[in-house]
Amino acid sequence: MIERLRHLLQPLNLAGLLTWTAVLLSLRAEAGGFTPERLGLMVIFLAGFLVLDLPGLRRRVQNLCVWVELLAALGVIAAAPRTGTAAVLLVILAAQVAMLWQARQALLMMALANLGFIGLVLHAHHPAPWLFITIYLGFQAFAALTGHYARNAERTRDQLALVNADLLATRALLADSARDAERLRVARELHDVAGHKLTAMKLNLRALAADPALATHPHVATSERLASELLEDIRNVVQALRDSRGVDLQTALRALAAPLPSLQLSLRIDDAITVRDPALAETLLRVVQEALTNAVRHAHASLLSVHLAQADDGLALRIHDDGQAPAVMREGNGLAGMRERVEQHGGRLSIERGHLGGLVLEARFPHEFL
């Protein structure tokens, strides 16, 4: 609740509220003053304005708020045509639509809005209708272009943040791979060099112990025992170095979701899972990355759940969001690339729409690819 209130009190929202208040106060100059009809339409517009700016709102609700604001604004213009300030509501709406919709959709919607606006102004017999209309069309264009450029700037910023997160996640995978490669190199060196020389030393000490002149010498027996213990210790160290902890998927996956403040990542990886193959780890990373992108860009989700678990037939990755997936699933380049990556590792990918409307992805990999 506090987070939503903080979001509503952002500078742009405060500017909109101030403008709405000014329009409301200007209605006193209209004949009839504050009528219930005018006040009701102003309240409806304000409700749409506030609801539209709530974070995590579904696309259908956003579209509904836009049309509610449009009808309320035209209603206020029709109910108070003489003051001329009611048309400012369309300027606010133009900025909002430009930040929410694609350029073509926004232009079409505002064209329809202005047809109604022009008709209402002409019907009210304004003393200078076309000058009045031209002024407000200019205000709308300025607000719409400002909103459009702000939207593009935000998208560019988000894309750069995603690229940076991708680099951080890839660096984490490379660091783990380099660590495991170094551990394996050290293990081989210990086994091949130190292990070989200790074995030769042990054989030489055993030969000395077989000499009757040295058989009873205590230092020979002690040296042979220490050489055996040291050889066993080196074998244990080599085995420990070879037992890789696998790739740190937790760090890499959380780095991907870090630059997406509007999407919460719920990540759960079973303790028994160890992914040692860097190629498989990268595939898991790319699958989750594509799911994150789809959840934000297309499904408008606020929560993405990722669960990596040990299954009877291998490894199971399940991803689902709380957004709204299309009723008819069509695989674009992202989902097709995801399927290809999974199949390269002998796995299979299922994509379906959940019972609550979100997208559900499940990838399974056989044991031999772990």
UniProtKB/TrEMBL annotation:
<dbReference type="GO" id="GO:0016020">
    <property type="term" value="C:membrane"/>
</dbReference>
<keyword id="KW-0902">Two-component regulatory system</keyword>
<dbReference type="Pfam" id="PF07730">
    <property type="entry name" value="HisKA_3"/>
</dbReference>
<dbReference type="GO" id="GO:0046983">
    <property type="term" value="F:protein dimerization activity"/>
</dbReference>
<dbReference type="InterPro" id="IPR011712">
    <property type="entry name" value="Sig_transdc_His_kin_sub3_dim/P"/>
</dbReference>
<feature type="transmembrane region" description="Helical">
    <location>
        <begin position="39"/>
        <end position="57"/>
    </location>
</feature>
<feature type="domain" description="Histidine kinase/HSP90-like ATPase">
    <location>
        <begin position="279"/>
        <end position="369"/>
    </location>
</feature>
<dbReference type="InterPro" id="IPR050482">
    <property type="entry name" value="Sensor_HK_TwoCompSys"/>
</dbReference>
<keyword id="KW-0472">Membrane</keyword>
<feature type="transmembrane region" description="Helical">
    <location>
        <begin position="106"/>
        <end position="124"/>
    </location>
</feature>
<protein>
    <submittedName>
        <fullName>Signal transduction histidine kinase</fullName>
    </submittedName>
</protein>
<feature type="transmembrane region" description="Helical">
    <location>
        <begin position="130"/>
        <end position="150"/>
    </location>
</feature>
<keyword id="KW-1133">Transmembrane helix</keyword>
<dbReference type="Pfam" id="PF02518">
    <property type="entry name" value="HATPase_c"/>
</dbReference>
<keyword id="KW-0418">Kinase</keyword>
<feature type="transmembrane region" description="Helical">
    <location>
        <begin position="64"/>
        <end position="80"/>
    </location>
</feature>
<dbReference type="InterPro" id="IPR036890">
    <property type="entry name" value="HATPase_C_sf"/>
</dbReference>
<keyword id="KW-0808">Transferase</keyword>
<dbReference type="InterPro" id="IPR003594">
    <property type="entry name" value="HATPase_dom"/>
</dbReference>
<dbReference type="GO" id="GO:0000155">
    <property type="term" value="F:phosphorelay sensor kinase activity"/>
</dbReference>
<keyword id="KW-0812">Transmembrane</keyword>
